[in-house]
Structures are given as C-alpha cells and as structure tokens.
Design goal:
The longest helix is centred in the middle third of the chain and has 17 residues, at 144-160. Strands 3-2-1-4-5-9-6 form a 7-stranded mixed sheet, with helices on both faces. A two-stranded antiparallel ribbon has the order 7-8. By secondary structure, it is of the alpha/beta class. 34% of the residues lie in helices and 16% in strands. The chain has 12 helices and 9 strands. It is globular, with a radius of gyration of 21 Å.
C-alpha cells in the first residue's frame, strides 16, 4: 500500500537503534500508536510480541487486519450457505469474478460517472462497487476481524490500480499504466508470530486503557498534511457510509478525524498530554527534522519522563512519485526514552 510516512524502508534503522540501546523486543507487550499501515507492528509481531496498535483512520485499521492480525490463513465457513468453496482462495475467486455494478464508486470516482473524476477506470470503479456491496452483505455473517480483513484486501487492490501519484489529494489527468490494469484481490502473506490487538481509537484513550507495557512506539504525523484528506478515497471504500462528496477531488467530511499533530499551535500540548499518560519501560518515537515539533520541543517533554537518546538516519524527501536530489539534509529521528 502506498503511504506517506510508511516506516518499511527504515525498519532496519529502528531495529539497529534498539539493539544499540540493548532493548529486548522479543516476546514483549508493545503498543504501536499512529500505526498507519502497521509496518512497525509487523516487525514486533515477527519477533513473537503482543502488539496493541491503534489509529484514528478506519483504512489504517483494515490494512492492519490485512497484514498483521492473522498468523495463519483464515477460512470462511460462515459463508457455506453462499459459497461452495469457503477457503480464502475460494472467497477471493468468487469476489474477483463478480459482475460489474454502476454504483456509488462509479458515480464518484470514474471518468464516465456523474462527477467525471479519474481516480479509477470505469471498469475498476464498477468492480469496487460490486465487491464492496457483497462484502457488506456478509457483515452479519462474518466476525468483525474477517470482515475488516476482507475490506483491507479490497482497499489494497484498489490502491494498486488508483490513478494517483501516491496520495489521494488529487487524481492524475493522464492515466498511469497501473491504473489501466484490472483490479484483482490478492491473498496477503501471513507473517505474524505474535498476537495483535487492533483498535480504532484516539491515542490518549488507548494508552489509558493499556498500561504497564514494555515498549510504546509512536509515529505521529509531523507536518501540516492531514492523513484524512490525503487518503479520503481509501477511507470512503472501507467506511461505506456513502457521504455526499465535495469539490473537484470528492472530499469526505473529515472534521472529526483531523489530527492536532498537524496543527502548529496544538501539537506540543497534545504531545505532552500523550506522554504524560503513557505507562511503559521504554518510549520510542519516530519523527523528522522537518516536523512541526523541534528536537528541543521533543526533548523537553521526553526528558521529564526519562533519559532520552536520539538516533539519526539521513534520507531524501519523497515527492509523491519521485525523489528529490540528495542534498536535502533531512533526517529520520528516533527518540529512545528509557523510563525504567
């Protein structure tokens, strides 16, 4: 899944930093805040830990169920009255072969739809309509975990063929080659050796609920870009509340999902409140040197909690579909606060 701020490419940096600090992350109780696509949760789960992860965007929750929740391939025996083959392969084959439907997503996201937006080809938009409607029909039959897992698979398939350069702030005027391919639901890998508890939640409420853990990892937004507006199409696919969308790009109402971490005059207060409520031995935070919080701001808060070290990783800025030149002087920062 294409995602700004995804930590997949810096997992080795995070792992090396933890080893330098002699922090044992195997078979521990770990919280992952602002979990996004769950890439850091995946790392901890591979090492047998129990991970409590949260985000305030439903698309993030669905992606985490897709990649992290199941250690083994689930079956769908609950659908035996509908399907002859209730294996995951059978379910995906059935959904992949559904007849097209001109519905909400066709109207709002296809060039031949009511609003002429070019997020998806006509064919792929109709396929999203058909599959999303059928998964919704199964909602009362399936466990919540399996329902969200299937939504994650659909969302990931849609993202793969979206006519965007990385986020959904706008669609491209010219079709990219991947957007002209057929949407296909694909089976994910099952890599988890641990247990994942995934919740749609405010981060402060979440850390108040889960106390006395070994490690809290957090990856808050660091600039003014709201994730809710940058990934509104994916949120619309999984939420399926069929909102009346606004503007040229078809924005959802995301007023309840705005993050204070993207607002300069609110971020430090929110960060302080979150840290004050965390109960852990080690607090680990990813951030960027171009973030709204300065290094001094972060250290001021963390050093009240415990002894804090900083690890730095040089990187190039990602501009949707291309890297800038190398001389950007940007760094990925990892703050490691030892509370014990």
């Amino acid at each position: 899944m294409k995602y700004i701020g995804n930590k997949t490419r810096v997992i080795n940096f995070i792992e090396d930093s933890l080893k330098k600090e002699k922090i044992d992350y195997n078979h521990k109780k770990i919280i992952d805040l602002f979990a996004g696509t769950g890439s850091v949760s995946t790392f901890f789960l591979k090492n047998g830990s129990t991970v409590y992860s949260c985000d305030n965007m439903l698309y993030s929750i669905c992606e985490q169920y897709r990649v992290n929740f199941f250690s083994n391939e689930p079956d769908f025996k609950e659908l035996s009255s509908i399907l002859d083959d209730c294996s995951l392969d059978g379910v995906l084959k059935y959904l992949n072969n559904m007849p097209f439907v001109k519905g909400y997503f066709y109207d709002n996201y296809a060039p031949s739809g009511k609003y002429g937006r070019k997020y998806f080809s006509d064919e792929n938009a109709m396929k999203i309509d058909a599959i999303r409607s059928e998964i919704e029909n199964w909602k009362e039959l399936l466990s919540n975990e399996k329902f969200l897992f299937l939504l994650g698979i659909l969302m990931c398939a849609a993202d793969k063929v979206s006519n965007t350069s990385g986020t959904y702030g706008a669609y491209l005027k010219i079709w990219r080659s991947m957007a002209l391919k057929k949407l296909v639901l694909e089976k994910p890998e099952f890599l988890s050796n641990g247990k994942n508890v995934i919740e749609l939640s405010d981060v402060v409420d979440f850390v108040k609920k889960y106390k006395k853990v070994d490690i809290v990892y957090m990856d808050p937004p660091y600039n003014k870009r709201q994730y809710a507006s940058n990934f509104h199409v994916l949120e619309n696919i999984v939420a399926y509340d069929k909102q009346e969308l606004k503007g040229k790009t078809g924005l959802r109402d995301y007023s309840s999902q705005k993050s204070d971490y993207c607002i300069k005059n609110k971020v430090k207060k929110s960060f302080q409140e979150l840290v004050d409520n965390i109960d852990t031995r080690y607090l680990i935070m990813s951030y960027s040197t171009e973030g709204l919080l300065s290094v001094d701001d972060i250290l001021e808060v963390l050093n009240k909690k415990g002894k804090t070290n900083i690890f730095r990783y040089n990187y190039r800025r990602f501009k949707t579909n291309a890297w800038t030149d190398r001389n950007t002087n940007l760094q990925e920062l990892l703050f490691v606060c030892r509370i014990c």
